[in-house]
Amino acid sequence: MKKRQIYILILFMLLIIGSCKRQDFGSGCYVSARIFVDVNWDDSGINPSVKSEDYSEVHRVSLRFFPKDGSAPFEHYLESSVYSGYIEVPVGEYSIMAMNESVTDVYWSDRLLFTDINDFNKIAATVAPVDPSLYRYYAPTSGELFVQDAHKLASWSIDDFSVTPSMVNRSRLDSIGTTQEDIVIHVKMRRLTYDARVLVTVKKLKSAHTIQGAMRGFSQKVYLSSAETAAIPSTKFFKLREFMFDADSVSDGIAETSFQTFGKLPVGSTPDYSMMLDVVLIDGSTYTPPYPFEYDLTEDVEIQDGFLINIAASIELPHRDGDEHIAVGDWDDEEHIDL
Question: Which of 1, 42, 75, 13 is nearest to 190 (CA)?
Answer without folding.
Answer: 42
